[in-house]
Design a protein that fits this description.
Order of helices and strands: HEHEEEEEHHHHHHHHHHH
Strand content: 5-15%
Largest sheet: 4 strands, mixed
Structural class: alpha+beta
Number of strands: 6
Strand order of the largest sheet: 2-1-5-6
Helix content: 55-70%
């Protein structure tokens, strides 16, 4: 209790990957963290939630600066004495949030807590590889959806190389895996979870949701709303009514504002595109020299060519060998 009291006097900042596609975060573990806090009804006044707009930072590795990814979610706790504690990654952030009072599992029995850990591990182990493969290793999906969704939250200059770094990281983890097998395992896991959930309001049948529900919702929501051209997981999900109902219910209960904001943005984009559409058939190609009287056209053309030649030579002169410059001069 003393630790909770002292923590309540501290400043806590949670950094997560930002929203897109109508979901509160395009990163499943960031979305699971936000969902967990919503399920806890944790007071927003105790936690400052920031959208990750940096994504990467320079750190010294073997005395050399390297650009490294900032793990999300990230929880930074600043104590009253100024001491800063940083927790990176979902597991460490979740453990610290529980010490701050955001704990859905504190009333569960030892067996129920063991079940929570088992299913939590199962969800991440089975679904994370498939999502990473689709988002980062499928060339079309990466170009049309993943890169745009992540880059919009990164600042310059990190935005120039951030997607390539994340893509290489995914390739190093899952590039040698059988992608069809990863997809098969994910579908199999979703079917098992759909059966486990059944008509219950929570996956484990507990009185209140757990981190298992938060994680499952995060993955299912991203799969459902992501604009991936090839989305075999969403096709499989359409045959799992229990999971679809869970996603829809939790979205309406906790993230309806995110959906509305995304829909407004999409309508605004569509309106701008419609207003800026150019009717090319109304344009006629004309000779730009036709406005110049006939006797002067050759003079203008020759002068333009000469000026362009001189300017080109002046620019290329710095790259020419010195011996050649003597001959040219």
């Amino acid at each position: 209790s003393n630790s909770v009291a002292s923590a309540s006097m501290a400043t806590a900042t949670l950094t997560v990957t930002g929203p897109d596609w109508g979901v509160a975060s395009v990163n499943p573990l960031s979305l699971a963290t936000l969902t967990y806090l919503k399920l806890c009804k944790y007071p927003s006044s105790k936690l400052d939630i920031q959208v990750d707009s940096k994504g990467f930072e320079f750190r010294l590795v073997d005395a050399r600066p390297q650009l490294l990814q900032i793990p999300t979610p990230r929880l930074a706790i600043t104590k009253p004495n100024g001491e800063l504690n940083v927790f990176d990654g979902f597991d460490d952030v979740l453990a610290e949030l529980r010490t701050l009072g955001a704990n859905l599992e504190y009333e569960l029995s030892s067996k129920q807590q063991a079940d929570v850990f088992l299913w939590q591990t199962y969800i991440v182990t089975k679904l994370e590889p498939a999502l990473a493969t689709i988002q980062w290793l499928d060339a079309t999906t990466f170009q049309q959806a993943t890169r745009q969704a992540h880059n919009k939250h990164f600042r310059f200059p990190h935005v120039l190389i951030s997607s390539r770094i994340l893509k290489r990281a995914a390739a190093s983890r899952f590039g040698d895996c059988d992608q069809s097998q990863l997809l098969h395992d994910a579908v199999e896991a979703l079917e098992a979870l759909d059966h486990k959930l059944g008509e219950q309001s929570t996956v484990l049948g507990t009185a209140q949701p757990t981190v298992v529900d938060a994680l499952l919702y995060a993955y299912v929501s991203i799969i459902t709303h992501a604009p991936w051209q090839r989305n075999d997981l969403r096709t499989a999900l359409e045959a799992m009514p229990n999971l679809m109902k869970l996603e829809e219910t939790m979205t309406q209960a906790y993230f309806a504002d995110v959906q509305r904001q995304f829909q407004r943005e999409q309508r605004s984009i569509a309106q701008r595109q419609a207003s800026t559409t150019i009717n090319w058939s109304s344009f006629k190609l004309t000779d730009p020299l036709s406005v110049i009287p006939g006797p002067y056209r050759k003079v203008v053309t020759s002068t333009t060519i000469a000026v362009a030649a001189i300017a080109t030579f002046s620019y290329l002169k710095q790259y020419l060998p010195s011996k050649l410059l003597v001959v040219v001069d």
